Structure formats: C-alpha cells, structure tokens
C-alpha cells in the first residue's frame, strides 16, 4: 500500500526533473541562447537613461529622437545574423552630450535586447 501512495509522487518528481532539463535557456547558468558569447547585464543594472528607454520601447513610444526605432543593419556583425529589418535601434540619452551620444538599445524580432555604450563597437545582452 505504501508503494502505491508513493508512486504518484515519484512520477511527479520525475516529470518535474525532466521539464527542468528542457528549458529554452542556454547551458551556462540561465543565459538565453541568443545571449551566449556576450557579456550580460540585468535590465535593472543599466543606467537610468537606458531603463527609461526600455520603458519607452515597451510602451511603443513616443520617442524623443527622430531616428528611434529605425532598422539597425548589424553591419558590424557582432549580433547574430538575421534578415534586414530584424533589429531596431533606440537612443539612450547621454547626460552632458549635445547630440545623441554613443549609447543605444538594440532590439531583435524575438524579444532580444542589447545595450551598447560605444556606438555599436560592442554589445551587452540585456536580461529582462
């Protein structure tokens, strides 16, 4: 009788263990596959201006710069290759700068988010 009572619990535990091993995340501590090979940062650890830009992206604007939302061509080839139109860029204001500055958020068509503070010379994957 005791074995019958334990069987459903054993099956449930095995099922949970199996499902835990079938995640869509990478194998390196919870980093999504699209972020593998890049440094990562939690969105909450970005500069305040970048967090505000993320909020505007999530809200669909309005954006403070005319070029916000334009297609990012990935000509540097630092992000995974996709068809043109997959990536879009948004300005992250730089305090004290009298132009758009070098900081940007780049978003991908499947929800990926990247941050650069050196005008696309390097990227950090933003974990949200």
Describe the largest sheet.
6 strands, mixed
Strand order of the largest sheet: 1-6-5-4-3-2
Rounded mean pLDDT is 85
User: Which band does the percent of strand residues land in?
Assistant: 15-25%
Count of DSSP H/I helices: 2
Work out the helicity level: 10-25%
Radius of gyration: 20 Å
Q: Assign the structural class, choosing from mainly alpha, mainly beta, alpha/beta, alpha+beta, or little secondary structure.
A: alpha+beta
Unreliable sequence segments: 10-28
**Topology as a string of helices (H) and strands (E):** HEHEEEEE
How many strands?
Answer: 6
Shape: globular
Distance between the termini: 48 Å
Could you walk me through the main structural features you see in this protein, from its secondary elements to its overall organization?
The chain is an alpha+beta fold and 128 residues long. 19% of the residues are buried. The radius of gyration is 20 Å and the shape is globular. It is built from two helices and six strands, in the order αβαβββββ. The protein has a six-stranded mixed beta sheet with strand order 1-6-5-4-3-2, covered by helices on one side. Keywords: Hydrolase, Nuclease, Signal.
